[in-house]
Design brief:
mainly alpha; Ferritin
Length: 270
């Protein structure tokens, strides 16, 4: 048992654990969905760039899982690969499929959806990471500083795509606006802390849900103003709250693929 674990109260440790699972599971699923675009992106330069972003995001997830391991939560790789969907704390947005079909079987993915989801998610992640840098839990704050260095480029990349497609052809604009609607339908739990809201905020692990939402809206307002569009509203009512383990069948299917190789030999050195 580490000295850090010794000084934490049970309630504080539970709150930290919950937040770290939310951060880790979000990045794991987001990076997985991003990896499914390998070889399918609009051009070779984007293929390389988006693959690099997915790789970075997977690295961020690994950092959070390692913090959970340090807290006594178990092996980091096991936490990433062996937990069932009911124990996952990722937002529903990150688990959604990229479109119709499957990666190895006639994928008919939606690039507009990828751009909107990635831009909105990355901007939300930046808001969280900026706040996490001031976390009362020092190991999380130190990890956030490292994540923030790479996140700047991720956000810039997706914002560029977002603005370009919404300033392009009528077809592109239509697809992007449809994608915005789809993404926002699943955006309600992105800033949720689930049933650990009170503890996470009481221990000042990160800013409150309300402040994070306000900061996200403020961060994208200039882009929407330049495009002469209104910032979409974050849903108040949730069909599923991933922070409480409420997920869709998309997550079950993703975990089967994500963990297939690891489960074939869990004791191997990955």
């Amino acid at each position: 048992m580490s000295s850090i674990e010794n000084v934490l109260s049970a309630e504080n440790k539970e709150a930290i654990t919950s937040l770290l699972f939310q951060l880790a599971d979000d990045d794991l699923l987001y990076s997985y969905r991003g990896s499914e675009w390998l070889g399918l992106a609009p051009h070779i330069e984007e293929d390389v760039a988006s693959s690099s972003i997915s790789q970075d995001s997977m690295g961020h997830a690994a950092m959070y899982y390692k913090l959970l391991e340090d807290l006594g939560g178990g092996n980091a790789d096991d936490l990433a690969h062996l937990r069932p969907a009911s124990e996952r704390r990722n937002s529903v947005l990150t688990e959604r499929v990229n479109g119709e079909g499957y990666y190895m079987e006639a994928p008919n993915y939606d690039w507009a959806y990828q751009v909107v989801r990635s831009y909105f998610y990355t901007q939300a992640k930046k808001v969280k990471v900026d706040s996490l840098c001031q976390s009362s839990y020092r190991p999380a704050a130190e990890a956030a500083v490292k994540v923030r260095m790479e996140l700047y480029y991720h956000r810039l990349h997706w914002e560029t795509w977002f603005k370009q497609l919404l300033s392009s052809t009528d077809v592109a604009k239509k697809k992007m606006k449809e994608a915005i609607t789809r993404v926002m339908n699943d955006f309600g739990d992105v800033f949720s802390f689930g049933n650990q809201k009170q503890a996470i905020e009481t221990y000042k692990l990160i800013d409150s849900e309300e402040i994070l939402k306000e900061n996200w809206i403020a961060s994208i307002e200039p882009v929407f103003a330049a495009l002469q569009m209104d910032v979409p509203s974050i849903p108040e009512t949730l069909a599923n709250n991933g922070r409480n383990g409420e997920h869709t069948v998309d997550l079950d299917e993703a975990l089967l693929t994500l963990s297939e190789v690891y489960k074939s030999d869990p004791v191997a050195n990955w």
